[in-house]
Amino acid sequence: MWFVESSMDSQLMDPKPRTPFAKSLGAPTPKDYDRLVQRASELSGISMTDLLSSKRTQRVSQWRQSIFFVLRHMGATFQEIGAYFNRTHGTIIHGCNTLERNASNKDVRQIIIDLTKKTDGDPDNQ
């Protein structure tokens, strides 16, 4: 996996370049956001509504921040992620930083692995 082979710090500091044509650079589409939230919901047992809500329990926050982190590494900007989750870009930055600080936690790493793992239902899995 990308985060096991390289430093997470360098990846957060060096995101993909952004242009008005971000889709051509491989940035996530709204369907990618929906698919990732749905996958997180299935893996965690937390409803999609709760993942998108303002609930702040540790478990919900950890999964939500994991989604932020994965989307960011897929090429989404902090503003784009914030708009989807109805949050400010500062909240997204804080979530990504918090997740990165906890990256040594085995449970956090497993969440990221599970979210980024290809499944049989993924259209990109060929």
Overview of this protein structure:
The chain has 126 residues and is mainly α. Helix content is 63%, strand content 0%. The protein is built from eight helices and no strands. The protein has helices at residues 2-5, 8-13, 30-44, 48-52, 58-74, 78-85, 89-101, 106-116. The longest helix has 17 residues, at 58-74. It starts with a helix and ends in a 10-residue tail after the last helix. The model is unreliable at 1-14 and 17-24 (pLDDT under 50).
List the helices and strands and how they pair.
Layout: H1 2-5, H2 8-13, H3 30-44, H4 48-52, H5 58-74, H6 78-85, H7 89-101, H8 106-116
Helix pairs in contact: 3-5, 5-7, 5-8, 6-7
Give the DSSP E fraction (strand runs of 2 or more residues).
under 5%
Rg over C-alpha atoms, rounded to the nearest angstrom: 14 Å
User: What global shape is seen?
Assistant: globular
Helix content: 55-70%
